[in-house]
Specification:
This protein is α/β, with parallel strands linked by helices and 817 residues long. It has 35 helices and 22 strands. A 9-stranded mixed sheet has the order 5-8-9-2-1-10-11-15-16. It has a 6-stranded parallel sheet with strand order 19-18-17-20-21-22, with helices on both faces. InterPro entries: Glycg_phsphrylas, Glyco_trans_35, Pyridoxal_P_attach_site.
Length: 817
């Protein structure tokens, strides 16, 4: 794809070539003759970064001069993926760089593959944060992303004998050419100890926290450039360091390991994303991580604010802090601590500033994901914060009683402290009380927030909950991931598809009825399928037919996302192909990818089942090439960029009411895949905009699921008895057909589906089977399928992260000029 309509200007090509060669010599320390491919990658990245810095410094000077409001986006994840093409494309340098490197016999498309994916996120939450950072830069919203610079991040997934194995991710082995270390930007972050009450000279009682442990947070900045260099914002990530790198006295005494024990303890904070929290030590590390980055970030933003303003009393007018999920919700207590203890503001004024500055995005209705921490852990690790949380709670409950609200159940529901099975701090409630805006991420999710997890808080504060449906950046998920489709769209719609897809993409609709356009649309899809088939052949030695239906489910492995339902259908389809010879079956490739949390046994078992099914299906000659099953290991952004443009069918089949939004559904639809899914999350809004006739919607609705839950009706015996096809699948799993080495492997899984089917897999199975038969019928009606595919692309423009950020900036942050 060309980023500009004109051929690159020779002077620009020459200038970029000179810049790369200079970086190769003076930053990498190599000459062109002896440079490795990775040396070239590093030189190109550093040269590109220089272009970004020019914009970046200009933007910062302009922001300071105009005293523009700043947005601070706090997120435990930023799944940014590879940055080389992202940055070159947004700067308008992609063709220039390609031409410049060709002059020195270097293939830009080859060296881009040497860049590791930054291991800074897990799934949709982190990818959303990355899209939002890019959109904020594109729209000119002055923003700072704050997170953790994980040394290893999430694990690298390997599949060994069908089982997931977690291996250390080594994305920083060769350094990170995009970041700037800021050794002068360091903050002390404290843990443990005790709190002492004193009376100061003015007679005011003050609380003095005397911590037992302190670590240093060191800043690393990565510039994030917007489309066509609109502006550049900073992603500031914190690395944990010990206050002393070496206890020299202990080392000289011969205690060589003990001398660096504090270093290991401190640096473990920024070592791994989402350490397993199935143990007390794991829980403590998770809380240490969350407080570590929140404390450093708040201290940093307050320092920046005071460097430009003489008071903190205008903080809400000059700063907006967005909490991305409950992970940073300790920010409510930490901001109060900083304002009251360190800046000596009165409690009531500090609370007013806190609430008016903070806003909170909720991403889940699952109780286990709405974090809570044992009071005992919080008191031990963050004793001053526990005091503040108690005080916030006391003021809150007292205010409700003063309003005449004495209902015990209501007060217990909205309390920050859960008094049930062990006293715990409810971080979701804390984030709600401490924020002026609480938003969901799809219309359905937001409504369910009001009706379920925050129903009582919503009654008390009816104006706080609002909706901001998620979006994706088209620069990454169309321009870069699918250059062939992008070029086709440009030819027919012009460059508006690059700059204003929300307005331009709907103009594609008439082309859905033009046979010549559909033919070109099919050709670009087939190119992507051939490329994905080659990748699968290389990695798994499995041969795929690019003319088969590519049926794709790629996302984090979780029971509510129901990869298991897809696998039950896969087994049923396999059995039917073998037995029902008179039925016409469309050739199909089932593609799975995704990681299971290290301590999530059931999710790991689902991965094993996918690989067991794949092994049997792919080696069975009686299937006659009509079905192939693939599980691609180590799913990440780069792999997604290969899979999504090649998908014909997008699986979005979560139990209705449990997926907050989803964003892969938007990426697939943008690239022309048809969706099979439940009316869950953003699928609801997609169906309204794309049209139910261009999707395959099935299964129980969120309301019907809720009725079942209230009735506690999880016994699936009746559903299984009414579905001979499902019964046959479960019998095959129970009897070890797919696990001859361990016939009992899936007995527990089948029992769970039978007696405690919490995610209603069995209840939706027959509807899912019928929807999949509709898929096959439409797939054989070639022109109808591709007409629907074109309409999916044409009608997805609204799901742009630019639209989402514009809504945040206008309605919540008030940060657009």
């Amino acid at each position: 794809m060309s980023d500009e309509t004109l051929t690159p200007i020779p002077d620009q090509v020459a200038a970029f070539r000179v810049a790369v060669l200079a970086k190769l010599a003076y930053s990498v320390g190599k000459d062109a003759e002896h440079a490795t491919e990775h040396d070239w990658f590093e030189a190109v990245a550093l040269a590109t970064r220089d272009y970004m810095v020019d914009f970046w410094l200009d933007d910062e000077r302009r922001t300071q001069r105009k005293k523009q409001k700043r947005v601070y986006y706090l997120s435990l994840e930023f799944l940014i993926g590879r940055l080389l093409f992202d940055s070159l494309s947004n700067l308008g340098l992609l063709d220039i760089a390609r031409a410049a490197l060709a002059e020195v016999d270097v293939d830009l498309d080859r060296i881009r593959t040497l860049e590791p994916d930054a291991a800074l996120g897990n799934g949709g939450l982190g990818r959303l944060a990355a899209c939002f950072m890019e959109s904020m830069a594109t729209l000119g919203v002055t923003a700072h992303g704050y997170g953790i610079r994980y040394e290893h991040g999430l694990f690298r997934q390997a599949i060994v004998d069908g089982w997931q194995q977690e291996q250390t991710e080594t994305w920083l082995d060769f350094g990170n050419p995009w970041e700037f270390e800021r050794p002068e930007v360091v903050y002390a972050v404290s843990f443990g100890g005790s709190v002492t009450s004193i009376t100061d000279a003015q007679g005011h009682q003050r609380q003095i926290w005397q911590p037992a442990e302190t670590v240093r947070a060191v800043a690393y900045d990565t510039p994030v450039v917007g489309w066509r260099g609109a502006s550049v914002n900073a992603l500031r990530l914190w690395r944990a360091r010990a206050t002393e790198e070496l206890h020299l006295e202990r080392f000289n005494a011969g205690d060589h390991l003990g001398a660096v024990a504090e270093v290991a303890r401190a640096e473990s904070i920024s070592r791994v994303l989402y350490p397993a929290d199935s143990t007390e030590a794991g829980q403590e590390l998770r809380l240490r991580q969350e407080y570590f980055f929140v404390s450093a970030s708040l201290k940093d933003l307050l320092r920046r604010h005071l460097s430009q303003h003489s008071t903190l009393l205008n903080l809400p007018q000059q700063a907006a802090i967005q909490l991305n999920d409950t992970h940073p919700s300790i920010a409510v207590a930490e901001l109060m601590r900083l304002l009251v203890d360190e800046h000596e503001l009165p409690w009531d004024k500090a609370w007013e500033l806190t609430v008016n500055t903070l806003s909170y995005t909720n991403h889940t209705l699952l109780p286990e994901a709405l974090e809570s921490w044992p009071v005992s852990l919080m008191e031990r690790l963050l004793p001053r914060h526990m005091q503040i949380i108690y005080l916030i709670n006391a003021h809150h409950i007292d205010a409700l009683r003063a309003q005449g609200l004495h209902d015990f159940d209501l007060l217990r529901s909205v309390s920050l402290i859960e008094e049930g099975n062990g006293r715990r701090v409810r971080m979701g409630n804390l984030a709600f009380l401490g924020s002026h805006s609480i938003n969901g991420v799809s219309a359905l999710h937001t409504q369910l927030m009001r009706e379920t997890v925050f129903t009582d808080l919503h009654r008390l504060y009816p104006q706080r909950i609002n909706n901001k449906t998620n979006g994706i950046t088209f620069r990454r998920w169309l321009h870069q991931a699918n250059p062939a489709l992008t070029q086709l769209l440009r030819e027919h719609l012009g460059d508006g598809v690059l700059d204003s897809p929300e307005e331009t993409l709907p103009q594609l609709e008439p082309f859905a009825d033009k046979a010549a356009f559909r033919k070109r649309f099919i050709e670009q899809r087939r190119q992507s399928k051939v490329a994905l088939a080659a990748l699968v052949q290389e990695r798994l030695n499995i041969t795929l037919n690019p003319d088969a239906l590519f049926d794709v489910q790629v996302k984090r492995i979780h029971e509510y996302k129901r990869q298991l339902l897809n696998l039950l259908h896969t087994v049923a389809l396999y059995q039917a192909i073998r037995a029902e010879h008179t039925t016409e079956w469309a050739p199909r490739v089932k593609i799975f990818a995704g990681k299971a949390a290290a301590s999530y046994h059931q999710a790991k078992l689902i991965i094993k089942l996918a690989n067991d099914v794949a092994r049997m299906v792919n080696n069975d000659p009686t299937v006659r090439g009509l079905l192939k099953v693939v599980f691609l290991p180590n799913y990440n952004v780069s792999l997604a960029e290969s899979i999504i443009p090649a998908a014909d069918l997008s699986e979005q089949i979560s139990t209705a009411g449990m997926e907050a939004s989803g964003t892969s559904n938007m990426k697939f639809a943008l690239n022309g895949a048809l969706t099979i899914g439940t009316l869950d999350g953003a699928n609801v809004e997609m169906s309204e905009r794309i049209g139910l006739e261009n999707m395959f919607i099935f299964g129980l609705t969120a309301q019907q699921v809720n009725v079942r839950k209230r009735a506690n009706d999880y016994n699936s015996e009746a559903a299984i008895a009414a579905s001979p096809r499902l019964a046959e699948v479960l019998l095959a799993l129970r009897s070890g057909v797919f696990s001859p080495d361990d016939p009992a492997r899936y007995v527990g899984l089948v029992d769970e589906l039978t007696w405690n089917d919490r995610f209603l897999v069995c209840a939706d199975f027959d509807a899912y089977w019928d929807a999949q038969r509709q898929v096959e019928n439409l797939w054989r009606q070639h022109q109808r399928w591709w007409r629907a595919a074109v309409l999916n692309t044409a009608r997805t423009g609204w799901f742009s992260s630019d639209r989402t950020i514009r809504e945040y900036a206008t309605d919540i942050w008030h940060a657009l000029e």
